[in-house]
Design a protein that fits this description.
The protein is about 35% helix and about 5% strand. The protein has a two-stranded antiparallel ribbon. The protein is mostly helical. Strand 1 and strand 2 form a beta hairpin. The chain is built from 3 helices and 2 strands, in the order αααββ.
Amino acid sequence: MARITREEVLHVARLARLELSDAEVARLQDELSDILEAVSKVSELDLSDVPPTAHPLEIANAWAEDVPRPSLELDEVFANAPDREDDHFKVPPA
């Protein structure tokens, strides 16, 4: 399998808005390449008898009961908002 390139690491870092040093980029190149190599080994297995699954373990719904309760007051909702306009969050234009 091909190694992850420096440019690919920098591209992912830019998408994640991460600032990486040269040493971190080199380390992540090695680590991500190792991860992809390990994952690619799965394709070498004969999985024709294995049914597709969404989760490897049987799980039951772990959600709590949906119980109606009062909403927050608007002043509480906007307490940590950087800016507010009437009953809306005010954000800078994109």
